[in-house]
Amino acid sequence: MYDKTFKNDFFDLSTFLGLLLIFNIIGSILSLCLFGNLFSDLNHSKDIAQLNNINFDSIYKLKLITSLNIKSFFTFVLSPLFYIYFSKRNYSFKLAFFNYKKLIFIILLITIILILIGIINIYLINFAKKVSFARNLYGLKIKAKFIDFKINYIIKNLSNSTSFTHFLYVAFSCAFLPAIGEELTFRLIIQNDLNKILNNIHLAILFTSIFFSISHLQISLILPRILISLILGYFYYWSKTIFIPILAHFINNFLFFSLVYLKNLKYIDLDLFEHNKQIPSFVIFISLVFLFYLSSNFKKIITNKF
What we know:
By secondary structure, the chain is mainly alpha-helical. The chain has one domain. Helices cover 76% and strands 0% of the residues. It contains 13 helices and no strands. It has helices at residues 2-35, 40-44, 48-52, 58-86, 100-130, 133-136, 144-158, 164-198, 201-214, 222-239, 243-264, 281-296, 298-302. Helix 5 crosses helix 11 (243-264), helix 8 packs antiparallel against helix 11 (243-264) and helix 9 (201-214) crosses helix 10. The longest helix is centred in the middle third of the chain and has 35 residues, at 164-198. The protein is globular and about 55 Å long. The mean pLDDT is 82.
């Protein structure tokens, strides 16, 4: 009975991963039909000089963002919805509706936790550089540093605008859409399915986080993304509602691109695409203590009646 259940659970998860690939291909083909091969110059760029020759004008940026949105929507929104609709599994879309005061408190709590994670992630990024983690991981014979630079270069240029309208579109594309799609994909389906396969929620959250991090293709940010995904996974596990990780994911991405927009307007002098800042050890320690305290008490805090 156990073996049969395991095989069924494994088959269902494999089916969903196959659907992700199929819907990604469909989205890519549709994007290609609508806008042509916008990624040709980007994919063939072998060094920084070639990247700098690409003209990121407003029209090109709009087309590129829309093209990415189409692929993201098909892969991470339509794919899980299609799978949930036709699957025999009972995936709960339970949403939590809080009163005004409690919702504000939850948003503040999540924001504080995300800020603490951001501080710790700066340390993790610098640590990865020191041990050459990004270049030696699994013996990959690739120029990991340039690949990371290319991805950062694209994101930086796509978000480089002082237009508020453009900022809203970037926020929708890089905060709202990923928050919904990626949480449906990784938390609602993959984490739940892995939990049924492994019969261990902690391992399910860990493996989901590793998959989540690798899927973003930035090798030097594997550790930071694993950390944020672990928190999102436990948010879902503790709160029993997909609303909380979606909200946290949105806040995390929205804060990042809001700071980028303020930098574009020259209101702040902070380059979030550079990771050269050193964080004192005592700050890391305090951040870890507070992160552990807030995270370990999140379930108690979120279910507390106001």
